[in-house]
Amino acid sequence: LGLALYACSLCAVSGATFLYHDYCVIGAGPAGLQAAYFLQQAGRDYIVFERSHAPGSFFALYPRHRKLISINKQYTGKSNSEFNLRHDWNSLLSHDRRLLFRRYSRDFFPNADTMVRYLEDFASLLKLRVQYNTAIIHVTLEKNEQAWNGHYFLLTDQDRKNYRCSSLLIAAGMWVPNVVNFPGSEYVEGYETVSINPEDFTGQTVLILGRGNSAFETAENILGVTNFIHMVSRSRVRLSWATHYVGDLRAINNGLLDTYQLKSLDGLLEGDLEDLAIIKDKKGKLHITLRFYLENRNISAGIDSITLPQDELDNFATRAPYDRVIRCLGWKFDFSIYNRSLRMMPGKGNIKKYPQIKPSYESRSTQGLFVLGTASHSVDYRKSAGGFIHGFRYTTRAVHRLLENRHHGVPWPSTVYPITQLTNSIIKRVNEASGLYQMFSVLADIILLRENATAFEYLEEYPIGVLAELEMQTGRKARNGLFVIIMEYGRNFSGADKDVFYYNRAVGEAQHAWQSNFLHPVIYYYKHLPTEREMRVRPPDWPLPRPNAIHHIVEDFLTDWTAPNAHILPLRRFLENCLSTDLRNFFAESCFLFAFTHQKLPPSCQQGYIQMQGLVGSQELRHHAVHAGLLQDYTHTDFSGDRPPDSHDGSQEQLIRDHGIPVRPLQHLVHAKDE
Questions:
Q1: How does strand 151-157 pair with strand 162-170?
Q2: Same domain, 80 and 30
Q3: How far is it, in rounded angstroms, from Cα 511 to Cα 369?
Q4: Where are any strands of DSSP class E within 158-211?
Q5: Of 117, 471, 474, 492, which has the fewest Cβ atoms less than 10 A away?
């Protein structure tokens, strides 16, 4: 019978009509719209399926109390749009300046309704191809050797319409509530349905299951009207300012911590929720007990026949009955619509609520299936911001670039610079790049050195988890060594049990930069591209394998890494040591002297002075260089001949005389211009 049903299903599929698109995107939330934007800009054939009548349907309901915890900083003191995105956690990436979130709200923590309106405008103003009221209810594979990945993805919606795609991008988010089943769990109200009217809790005693932002958000809403609130979870509270993870408890919601520590009745408890049991008495009160007390007993027999913990331990913490118990345990990924042929498997341990994916955000089991947005957070769970808009807007762009190279032969965007611009390029990026800043330890800038280190190729915001596959994934070659630039916190600075406000917590001197605690740039140098094995056996908590050399730019209170002595000079010397070259910029007089006293000229002389390039000298520049000690002052020397004292040619002759170089043979040479 099973074989017959399977055969019938194959016949039904083979006889169905499929609408084809190169790319199918499931979900028109922030990640789905961000992916659609990049696909549209590249001119690709795509469609976005959204089950609701408008984009961002998750935000139409959540958070329940309507205040987002993603910051919307209006002012930074700078006009650099890339820098300002470091402090704008709500905007999606686009070329349209109208679609910056600060134009929609001035609130530091905006209302969720504003996010819904913003996403609607993002989709409509950019004319993204979103098919609304289309719920994809089944996804399976169809083997086909001519397909990009050796198979097509077949999608079916609620109206039994069928779609065929070469690549599938899942951006459906995490919306299935986490539910813990235990005896009496039927008396528990869910975060998704509980009343948000504080008056409904007046004079009540409430127990909240969970300890994330949704739990504290719920407690904050009713803190002033309840008798007391208890909160229980299997793990201790984790404060975002201690862990440096934005998904942990934020200060805007932590009022209950005050009332707990200042002994105002509210409290926090730790315990495994699966060990709990709830018994309802005749008055409707809810009593907390432990599961093992109910073994071999009938819970429906009544509370009088059941042993409660306080019967044996009269000061049991939760001995007081509760009026309500609320579940606030977050959400998980919906695996139900994916056929076994896709082998969409949940992760293990702490990431079991997410699908298993590679660091490239592609499914571990099915080529061509990518997970975007919140559901892709397993790559950097509790490490970086990949589960939030200000993180996955960059990882979505990275996935798009990987797909452009794989399917359309478009290499990862890069820029080639002469080696003399190496220091400046790094300093510019670490001071303004928002992707590096938000996705610290996950996305990195890659500098590929050209032969003899005369030039370099700069790639921005590449996923370091697939560094070993860089050549294949980007279409760029790394034959002559590379630098990897990432942002990191100190190794031992983040954690739920860390005191991040201790005295002398910051480092200020460049020689101690490796001990920096706060977010700061780190540059790794590799003579050869790391292998997959080196990536696997890298030291614990290291984002990358051991490099040939490493440099920390000392942390800065203003996150402004432009100090000449503390930031730029140590970086330049590190780069010079790695490349065995001189990256300083020289005046024309110095290059002229080097040409006669050195076998090899510094790169700035080779690529500037010798090539008749550079800035034209002036009297003002010369005086500045003399005053700074960069040039000797020859302007007051008594020159022979008719040349005036400040003549450029006379200055060169005097420079040569001072170093014992004969002047007469140079009369047959064309004088070099002061550039």
A1: antiparallel
A2: yes
A3: 46
A4: 162-170, 176-177, 189-190, 205-209
A5: 492
C-alpha–C-alpha distance, residues 504 and 52, integer Å: 52
CATH value at residue 263: 3.50.50.60
Residue 319 reports pLDDT greater than 90? no
Residues 474 and 391 both lie in one domain: no
* Residues 150 and 64 both lie in one domain: yes
> Which residue matches tokens 């004969």?
662
Question: What does the radius of gyration of the chain's CA atoms come to, in whole angstroms?
Answer: 32
Tokens of 443: 């996305």
Residue 237 sits at the vertex; the CA angle it makes with 232 and 241, to the nearest 5 degrees, is: 155
Average model confidence (pLDDT) across the chain:
88
Question: What is the SS3 string spanning 419-432?
Answer: HHHHHHHHHHHHHH
Q: Tokens for 453?
A: 């280190």
Q: Name which of 15, 348, 63 is nearest 213 in CA terms.
A: 63
**Two structure tokens written together for 382:** 């509790």
- Residue 596 resides in a domain: yes
* End-to-end Cα separation, the chain, in angstroms: 86
Q: Which domain holds residue 457?
A: 417-579
Q: Do β-strands 455-463 and 205-209 pair in parallel, antiparallel, or remain unpaired?
A: unpaired
Tokens 């762009």 map to which residue?
397
Q: Based on the structure, what is the number of domains in the chain?
A: 4
354-384 pLDDT, tens digit per residue, is 999 999 999 999 999 999 999 999 999 999 9
